[in-house]
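[Automated response] Your request has been received and processed.

Submitted sequence:
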Amino acid sequence: MPAAVPDVATATVAVAEIRAEFRELPHGRLSATAERAMLDRCVQATLQVLFEQGAELRVAGTERHPVVEARLTGHGSAALAASTALAAADRIRHIGGGRFVLAGAVGEGYEADGEGGTRLILGDPAGTASVLSERAAPGQVLLGGARWPELEGIESLPTRSASPGAAHVPVFVLRGVR
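Generated structure:
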């Protein structure tokens, strides 16, 4: 007899994943020490913005190419993730000295606890954010998922591209948050 499927409609939690990469723009040469210090300030500023919103944080990548990943859960997490990503990009634009900018992405979805401790994930927010952050232009934040046009206060433009993989994921460029 197959296991019963849990009623996930009552146990789902909205999830948003943010992934931020730091792109260096062509400028005059800095010493390696000064460049590393500026990049470190950008990473720290991004972590601070995300931490202030209660995000679970991870730092990945390498010393030369750090990646900040964050996870927000609960009602309104997608809109909060979008506004937080935009705030982080704005802060990097100011402290990066025109040398570093954020290229990021936000993926949205849902999670539910299944039977036996399994976790059910709808929308693959982490995978979407990972793929899209690599495709984002310097200074751009991409949004992956179908719900973005429905979210109040999120100004986004659809793109023609979709994330690669088995499922087509609509992609939007984040323009602003009201």
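Summary generated for your ticket: The CA atoms of residues 144 and 171 lie 5 Å apart. The beta strands are 13-24, 56-61, 66-73, 100-113, 119-122, 141-144, 154-162, 170-177.
If you did not submit this request, please reply to this message.
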